[in-house]
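During the reporting period the student researcher (J.K.) took over the structure-prediction task from the postdoctoral fellow and processed the backlog of single-chain submissions. One of the processed entries is reproduced below for the supervisory committee.
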Amino acid sequence: MISMKKSTTVQAASTVTATKAKASFSAVLARAGYQGHRIVIKKGARPTAVILGYEDYQRLIDLEDRYESALLTKSLKNDRFLTLDDVTKRLGL
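J.K. obtained the following structure tokens:
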């Protein structure tokens, strides 16, 4: 278990088969939504999807936005951007 700010705790991901997740979807949803579990759904031997609580999802989106913003800022500082005309020429539009 990893401790996060705002006294939120995040459980390590557990794994269930798609069949078991379907049969006990209400319990899986409760574990993710109310207990902070992250649940990997496997179909056969392959991980196929993840169910996580809404707060975890919001943190993931926030982290993704910050990362993309940092990449954009770095790109602009390095003058590595294209104008709309450059893009249309490269794409042959």
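The committee noted the following: The CA atoms of residues 41 and 81 lie 39 Å apart.
J.K. will present the remaining backlog at the next meeting.
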